[in-house]
Amino acid sequence: MTSPKESGTTPGTITAGYWLVVAGAALWVLAAVYQLSNKQALVDAVKSRTTDPALTPEMIESSATVTLVVVLVVSVVLAALAVWFAVKVKAGTKKSRTGLMITVLLNLFFQMIGNGYAITPALIAMAGLVLFYFRQSTEYLSEREQLT
Question: What mean pLDDT is predicted for residues 92-113?
């Protein structure tokens, strides 16, 4: 088997990892959009369970809107960062794996708190990140780093 340096091609682990990160990021943004589109179900659930007379329906609706918009904005920002780092790794920048790891882990913890629908997409992106740490990927990135 030839090394990536000899063949001049990107290993399959890098390519598959890249697409898993991109797919996971796209899906976690779609999960945030879905959650925002179902805002009324969230508002109705809170209204039916609340026993505090100080909470007015307007307060509940505005709080839900603000929370869901924040979840969407943070999801978009983290998705953009994850895709940017994945592009950098695919281009051969070994240091970008660390930035991608931090971004994906932050997203996983954020989604566990803010959007349960996006946990599976975050784990898909995490699987792509794991592929960037396989031996073939590490050898390819080390060789690319030495060339520059």
Answer: 93
